[in-house]
Write a structure and sequence with these properties.
heterodimer; A: two-stranded parallel ribbon; 26% helix; B: 359 residues; alpha+beta; six-stranded mixed beta sheet; four-stranded antiparallel beta sheet; globular
Chain lengths: 126, 359
């Protein structure tokens, strides 16, 4: 059976391990996943990202590594669930709404860096 | 020696190498105007100046972005074309391209967007009655409002984003997504900038917050891609909350005399607020003082609820006022036309920096 998606805690563990494999005294700072409690991460890209973390930690002049996860499309559409619960905690009534959120794009994180290798496929491709 | 004729015959690249080309644009820099925050650099560029530089419009916005380290919203104007305000007033001067940039770069996927030209047809006029103004006052001019939704990747908003900079609603609302500060730039204020006129800088206030919702139905509109909300309806649909939605936002708008002049032109083209054009407080006020009709019955109850919350009720429409001439309305525009809290009037030359890039 192919493992098409990786468990979120496994994804995070793998990224730390990719650094520890080469430097026991270093670590990677991960931002952007704090709001997720359970999620399945695309396995195909997980492997590539592990590889990229290793490459970065071994790159000349690099002393610290950080991973930031931001929306690829900077407008995300979310369902908003307004729940009313009884004393027993059961959902008695709910209203569903939608909200579109605008996010900044990668330039915020990159600043003036010119050495950027864009390995992302086009929008809509894996 | 090369003569002018030779230069005209040479292809664009050769010409550029032989003459010192210049790209001119105007900019309201990020910072403050009085007490009001300008959350990013706001760039205005005329397609005529782009053509004179020898660049095409995409090259020009890329070049402009490269000179700006901070976040910027960039609008390209065709001052020979026409557009419409959100409440359906047709004006000369249209945004034909918008972009957002940060750290000197435009995001390759989401950083730029073209507005769609709407070709003239009798069917279009029939479907969008406010476009009768096109026939009456602006015949032969190209019309642009928003983009074609099929030609943009971003799913919902008509927005460009690069880094911190967001240029939204077809370049009439810009923001810095990191500081979360925003500025509202209604099209008529931007046209004043292009024409070196006078603008008001202030806070939107409850009346503009309500008025923005009183839209007209447009295909490829500035905000909505399809004909969602007709004249007489409200896009907000949020009752007394409508006055708070966009109440505290800095804005740069046209001076009220220019604003009133455009509304008068629309009314004289036969437009009726609530029927052909939006029932915004400004449109209804000018109509009321000129004794022109307002389609009270076609204005929906939820629109009345929002309008009444800021003082524009059915009773207000029915109340007696001393009728004025067009000249009197223009003369008294500052006191008559509602909207903008604590405005400061500025000559465009006082707030705009003119920049020339040597190419």
């Amino acid at each position: 059976m192919k493992l098409m998606h990786t468990k979120l805690p496994d994804y995070i563990r793998k990224m730390h391990e990719a650094v520890h494999k080469h430097f026991a005294d270093r670590d990677i700072k991960i931002r952007g996943l704090e709001n997720l409690t359970s999620a399945k991460m695309q396995s195909l890209r997980t492997g590539r990202i592990e590889h990229a973390v290793e490459e970065m930690v071994l790159a000349p002049g690099v002393e610290q590594v950080e991973m930031v996860v931001i929306p690829r499309v900077p407008e995300t559409m979310h369902t908003v669930i307004i729940k009313g619960m009884g004393a027993d905690g059961e959902v008695k009534k709910a209203i569903l709404e939608v909200i579109n959120i605008l996010h900044s794009t990668e330039e915020v994180e990159l600043g003036g860096c010119e050495d950027v290798e864009d390995r992302r496929p086009g929008i809509g491709r894996h | 020696m090369l003569r002018t004729d030779d230069l005209e015959l040479a292809d664009t690249k050769e010409r550029r190498s032989m003459i010192m080309a210049v790209l001119k644009y105007k900019m309201i820099p990020e910072g403050k105007i009085g007490e009001y925050t300008i959350p990013l650099n706001i760039v205005f560029v005329d397609i005529k100046d782009i053509k004179a530089s020898g660049l095409d419009a995409d090259e020009a916005v890329t070049r402009i972005a490269s000179t700006l380290p901070g976040p910027a919203g960039i609008s390209v104007f065709d001052m020979e074309a026409v557009t419409t305000t959100s409440d359906g007033i047709m004006v000369q001067g249209a945004i034909i391209k918008m972009a957002a940039s940060d750290h000197g770069k435009i995001n390759q996927d989401f950083g730029r967007l073209d507005m769609e030209e709407m070709p003239y047809s009798e069917k279009l006029i029939e479907e969008e009655p406010h476009l009768k103004q096109w026939e009456a006052s602006f015949q032969g001019r190209k019309l642009f409002r928003g983009p074609d939704p099929q030609k943009k990747i971003i799913p919902v908003h008509n927005v460009c984003i690069s880094g911190r900079a967001s240029n939204n609603n077809s370049a009439t609302e810009m923001m810095n997504i990191v500081t979360m500060e925003e500025i509202l730039l209604p099209i008529m204020g931007q046209l004043e900038v292009l024409q070196d006129g006078e603008v008001l800088v202030g806070l939107t206030g409850g009346i503009i917050s309500v008025g923005i919702g009183m839209t007209v139905a447009e295909q490829y509109g500035r905000v909505f891609p399809t004909r969602q909300f007709k004249a007489g309806e409200t896009a907000h649909g949020s009752g007394e909350y409508a006055q708070t939605l966009k109440r505290e936002i800095p804005c740069i708008v046209s001076n009220k005399k220019s604003f009133a002049k455009a509304i008068i032109k629309a009314l004289n083209a036969g437009m009726i607020p609530g029927k052909d054009i939006g029932c915004s407080p400004a449109n209804m006020t000018v109509a009321k003082y000129l004794g022109k009709p307002i389609d009270v019955d076609n204005i929906q109850e939820n629109a009345w609820e929002e309008l009444s919350s800021v003082g524009f009720s059915k009773e207000w429409v029915a109340s007696d006022v001393e009728l004025l001439t067009e000249d009197q309305v223009l003369e008294k525009a500052d006191e008559l036309i509602p909207g903008v809290t604590n405005p400061i009037k500025k000559k465009v030359s006082e707030i705009v920096k003119v920049v020339e890039i040597a190419l």
